[in-house]
Amino acid sequence: MLTSTSAFCFRSLKFRAENKDVKFVDVSYKGLVEDSPATVKDIYKQLNLDLSPELEQHIAVTADKMHAEWKDYQSTVWNEQEPKPQLQDFGLMTGDVKRIFADYSAKFGG
C-alpha cells in the first residue's frame, strides 16, 4: 500500500512539473474537514471563479450537517477506552512514512 501510494504521489509531482500550463489547486484535507466553506471559497478564489451567495450558503449548511454526522460517527467508532488506529496497526512505521513522503510533505505540508 505504501509503495503504490508513494508512486502515485511521485507521478503526480512529475506530471505537475512537466505541465506548468495546467492549473492545480492544492487542498489541505485538514482544512477541508475542519472548515469546508473557507476551503471551497479559497478554491474558487484560486481559480478566479465567482462563488454565488446561494452556493456559499448551501456549502455552509452541508458542511455543518456533515461535521455533526462525523462527530456522531467518531463517538460510536472510537471511544476513550479504544485508542485510534496508528500507522503501526497497518504494518507501517512512522519513520518510513516520513522518509518516503519527505519531498511531498516539504512541498505541500504534512
Tell me about this structure.
There is one protein chain. The chain has helices spanning 2-18, 29-34, 36-46, 53-77, 94-100, 102-108. It is mainly α and 110 residues long. The longest helix is centred in the middle third of the chain and has 25 residues, at 53-77. The relative contact order is 0.11. The model has no long low-confidence stretch (mean pLDDT 86).
Q: Average pLDDT, to the nearest integer?
A: 86
Helix-strand category: mainly alpha
Model regions low in confidence, pLDDT < 50 over at least 5 residues: none
End-to-end Cα distance: 19 Å
The ordered H/E elements are HHHHHH
**What's the helix count?**
6
Overall, the morphology is: flat
Helix share bin: 55-70%
Number of strands: 0
Give a quick account of the main beta sheet: strands, pairing sense, barrel closure: none
Question: How much of the polypeptide forms β-strand, as a percent range?
Answer: under 5%
Computed CA radius of gyration, to the nearest angstrom: 18 Å
